[in-house]
Amino acid sequence: MVFVTDDPMDPRSHEHRRRCYKARDETVYLHKGTPYPSWAIYLHLMHQPERGFDNMDRNKTQYAAATDLVDFLHPRNRLGSFGLDRLNANIRTPGWGPDIVVKAFHDLDKVFFQGRLEGRVTIKWKKAKFFKYDSSKGKTYGSTWSKAPRGAQIFLNADAIFLDQTSDPFKDMWGTLLHEMIHAYFDVMCGIGEGSDHHGEDFQRIFRALNIRTGPLIGVEALQ
């Protein structure tokens, strides 16, 4: 299916796709680019990871880390209302750019990942050639690399998300980010890298619990 429109403000339009792709490498500034009520300290932590807030209760087993987050995400629990309000009010801002994922990361982390990733995870846009191609998996939208001692780097595929006409940029951008945040969560909490059971049962437990909450609350779901 092809997702392309003629409305320049629609994220699926050729114009919006090209504008986002061109801006992928631009430095993210608080008062430039996509408007989002973030704070300078959180943008700074994207450039100076591992100097941010300490994450309590690290060095967990993968099973324990997954259980902790699944319990946190249970529908009986009320998630952070202020972060949810900011996400819902701003992630669909007309004309948003690729910087929105950096600016909204703090709220996604606090609302859905207990704030465990702040100061330990960075996000960068990359061209398709950066990603390893696996014919058995098809198109790669993103990847997460471990970073010692307890951190991770999330890379998003700008070609696949913005230039591929079969993609829905809004859905695929947020869906990919949420997917990679699960991997980053394990890296931060457990020190588990690419050699682990990458999409095993513990990943799937968080994946299912996360989408039960993100779908109704902010209208996006992690991609499988």
Protein model, in words:
- There is one protein chain.
- The protein is mainly alpha-helical and 224 residues long.
- Helix content is 43%, strand content 8%.
- A hairpin with a 3-residue loop joins β2 and β3 (151-157).
- It is globular.
- It starts with 13 loop residues before the first helix and ends in a 6-residue tail after the last helix.
- The mean pLDDT is 87.
Helix/strand order: HHHHHHEEEHHH
Compute the number of strand runs.
Answer: 3
Average pLDDT reading? 87
Global structural class: mainly alpha
| β-sheet strand percentage | 5-15%
The low-pLDDT segments are none
Helix content: 40-55%
Largest sheet: 3 strands, mixed
Write the layout of secondary structure elements.
Elements: H1 14-22, H2 40-47, H3 62-72, H4 81-90, H5 100-103, H6 105-112, E1 121-126, E2 142-147, E3 151-157, H7 158-163, H8 169-190, H9 201-218
Parallel strand pairs: 1-3
Antiparallel strand pairs: 2-3
Helix pairs in contact: 3-9, 4-6
Spell out the key features of this protein.
224 residues, mainly alpha, three-stranded mixed β-sheet, 3 strands, 43% helix, globular
